[in-house]
Design brief:
The chain has helices spanning about 1-35, 75, 140; strands at about 40-50, 55-60, 90-95, 100-110, 120-130, 150-155, 165-180, 190-205, 205-220, 225-240. It is of the alpha+beta class. Strand 8 and strand 9 (about 205-220) form a beta hairpin. The longest helix has about 35 residues, at about 1-35.
Length: about 250
């Protein structure tokens, strides 16, 4: 009987040690994740032209979530956008379906050596921290995207996506922008914008996950109206083997 009791106690101690080790490991992992976690949005908007533009008015989508919350809005409101020229006026508009920034300027006159092979570029950019973990798996529903979003369709990811960690998902969609300006018939204007949401942490080694969305539109000659724009989304990039953080 004593031997049975000793064996039972020994087995109990082994189970207890294993359980304690697992719990301790989970606590260490969760603590490392919580204390090192950083969530950031990176935004860029690039306007490129090879010719002078006059009486310029642009309505360009600003990334926002499905409820209209945008990490970029405050930056435009406080003029805390790197690269925004002093003679450009940037005003935010909420259309009910999308958040737009209205950019107006009397003229955009490139330097003398500008040409189709050497166009003139303005790049507006901002990087900001998010107070909450960014949903990089379902950004259309829960994170900042260029809206309105129409005709969403899943597409094959580029071949080089096989080099990216995780199992990326790729989609194309339609959004819109407005451009009104005077220019020569051969003027070429490219408007490009992107948003990337990324969560980074360190649990024994660095880890991260992210999504990225962008659109690009080429305009030729004068323009006076709304343009349908092709958008691209790549989500579920990186690692997701991390603890759940509950509110």
């Amino acid at each position: 009987m004593d031997r049975v009791i000793r064996n039972a106690l020994g087995l109990f101690m082994i189970i207890f040690v294993v359980f304690s080790t697992v719990v301790s490991y989970q606590i260490v992992v969760e603590n490392a994740y919580r204390t090192s976690l950083s969530s950031t949005y990176t935004y860029t908007c690039t306007i490129t032209t090879d010719s002078p533009l006059y009486n310029v008015t642009l309505f360009i989508p600003v990334p926002a979530d499905s409820r209209g919350n945008s990490p970029i809005v405050e930056r435009f409101s406080t003029h805390d956008i790197a690269g925004l020229p002093d003679d450009w006026t940037a005003t935010l508009y909420d259309t009910g379906k999308a958040t737009m920034v209205r950019i107006t300027t009397p003229a955009i006159v490139p330097p003398g050596r500008t040409s189709p092979k050497n166009p003139f570029t303005f790049t507006l950019s901002s990087e900001m921290k998010s107070d909450t973990v960014i949903d990089t798996r379902e950004p259309i529903e829960n994170s900042a995207m260029f809206r309105p979003i129409r005709d969403i369709r899943q597409v094959s990811c580029p071949p080089d996506s096989s080099l990216i960690n995780g199992t990326p998902r790729c989609s194309r969609y339609i959004t819109s922008l407005y451009a009104d300006y005077q220019a020569s018939p051969h003027a070429s204007v490219m408007i490009t914008s992107s948003i990337t949401g990324k969560n980074s942490w360190k649990i024994f080694e660095p880890g991260s996950n992210e999504y990225s969305s962008s659109f690009s539109q080429l305009l030729v000659g004068e323009n006076r109206g709304w343009e349908m724009v092709n958008g691209y989304l790549q989500s579920s990039i990186g690692r997701y083997d991390v603890p759940d953080i509950l509110p």
